[in-house]
Amino acid sequence: MAIITKSYEPTFWDRLYFPALIKGLMVTLRYFFKRKVTIQYPDEKYVPPDGYRGLHRLNKYPDGRIRCVACEMCSAACPADCIYIVPGPAPWEGGKERYPVKFDIDLLKCIFCGFCEMACPEEAIELTEIYDFSAYSREDLLIDREGLLEVYELTKNQNYYSRTDKSKKPAT
Ligand code: SF4
Ligand code: SF4
User: Fold this and answer.
1) Is residue 70 lining ligand 2, measured as CB closer than 6 Å?
2) Chain centroid to CA 60: how far?
3) What residues are in contact with ligand 1 under a 6 Å CB criterion?
4) Is the backbone peptide bond immediately before 48 cis, with ω within 30 degrees of 0?
5) What's residue 55's pLDDT?
6) What number is the average pLDDT over the span 81-92?
7) pTM of this structure
8) Atom of ligand 2 nearest to the CA of 69
9) Spatial distance between the Cα atoms of 34 and 63, rounded to a whole number of angstroms
10) Domain 56-155 is in which class?
């Protein structure tokens, strides 16, 4: 049997509209003096918390050698299959024998899960706080080894957005 629902009938107070208007203004007033959560992006940049998974970087030793030994553990762990590595003999004397001749990441395929960072036995690949990167073509979103090393230089000592020294952890 069909159920007939009576349509909404506005009351006398509803028809006045003022109670609803005042109620809405009270909500505005309540939030007006609260601390703002919005920011004036892009003039003002959001500073992500520690552990944020943004643009990747390839880490280096203090003497400038690339930490990566081209073992390809990261690409094996990558669920998006977006890391392409070509290994080759390391150009420097002593230490690690292999290094990546080519190391590309397709940022359009990456889901920023951080599995590559977790799988790396050399702490060579790391996800940084950088989130506002873009390009006009798909090809430009394929970051290569030089690009990854550049990100390392930009983020090794300081937070990319707040410019705070990364070695100085805030007191807890
Ligand atoms: S963050 Fe995840 S998806 Fe992106 S490259 Fe690393 S493992 Fe692959
Ligand atoms: S980044 Fe780490 S896991 Fe990936 S190839 Fe280099 S050493 Fe291996």
Assistant:
1) yes
2) 21
3) 77-80, 82-83, 105, 110-116
4) no
5) 98
6) 95
7) 0.80
8) 7
9) 50
10) alpha beta
